[in-house]
Amino acid sequence: MIRVAIVDDQPLFTDGLGRIVGAQEGMEVVSVAHDGESGVKMCAELRPDVILMDINMPVMDGVTATGKIRDLLPNAKILILTIHADDVHVFQGIKAGATGYLLKDCTPEDLSRAIRTVHAGDTIMAPEIARKMLLAFEEVDQEEEPSPPTLTNRELEVITAFARGLGNKQIARDLDISEKTVRNHVSNIYKKLHVYDRTQAVLYAIREGLIEADGFEKG
Questions:
Q1: DSSP letter at 77?
Q2: pTM over 0.70
Q3: d(C-alpha 156, C-alpha 204), whole Å
Q4: Cα–chain-centroid distance for residue 98?
Q5: Alpha-carbon distance 101 to 81, whole Å?
Q6: Tens digits of per-residue pLDDT, 144-186?
Q7: Rounded distance, CA 61 to CA 90, Å?
Q8: Residue 84 half-sphere exposure, CB side, CA atoms within 13 Å?
Q9: To 10 degrees, the CA torsion angle through 103, 85, 156, 183?
Q10: Helix (H) or strand (E) holding 172
Q11: Where in the chain do CATH 1.10.10.10 domains reside?
């Protein structure tokens, strides 16, 4: 059972969202909070499997709440669900540690797939959001930034597999290595690139020319 928590200040929306999630096989809503501060406390106490997070909320916004939850629960899987698709919100949300970013007009099927995807340890973005993320990264001031770290050939293969949307099990099969070895490579990639998740790693690698953008799975 995937335990889902909802953090959103619109009761009508959370009620509808709760019904959608509750209707999915193998999912349940364990709690709802209507502001970011309450959401942080709720998640620290209940440790839900997946957190659906709004951005604009009273007391504490969703981006700040996402960062605080990731500080308390480094492995928290946070899916931002919002009406905002502008560059600033996208960049801030992912930088804070969100593992997915969808717009509120997504279909119930898209939402269910996104919850299962982030619960499995992968990331997911609506296609239009992925494009904005790439633009946001390109606009970051690069003055006096040090040279990108050196990745091994195997690490480049793994990060390229990230861009294709593959999970650890499929990467292990394709590269003929164990899942444990894949996880070790993933950990090394995160440390070298100073990123939190696969989407950030892929975007960094594309920005620095380490891999091509053509195969990037955007949603």
A1: -
A2: no
A3: 12
A4: 4
A5: 6
A6: 455 667 888 899 899 888 877 788 888 999 999 999 999 999 9
A7: 14
A8: 19
A9: -40
A10: helix 168-175
A11: 144-207
Q: Quick one: which of 85, 201, 83 has its CA closest to 148?
A: 201
CATH topology for 2-138? Rossmann fold (3.40.50)
For CATH 3.40.50.2300, the residue range(s) in the chain are 2-138
Amino acid at 36: G
Is 13 in contact with 104 (CB distance < 8 Å)?
Answer: yes
pLDDT tens-place string over residues 62-86: 889 988 998 888 888 898 887 766 6
Structure-block tokens of residue 63: 């981006």
Residue listed under structure tokens 């499995």:
120
Contact present, 22 and 42 (Cβ < 8 Å): no
One-letter-per-residue 3-state SS of 108-154: HHHHHHHHHHHHCCCCEECHHHHHHHHHHHHHCCCCCCCCCCCCCHH
CATH T-level fold of 144-207? Arc Repressor Mutant, subunit A (1.10.10)
Measure the CA–CA gap between 169 and 199, rounded to whole angstroms: 18
Q: Quick check: 214 and 172 in contact, CB under 8 A?
A: no
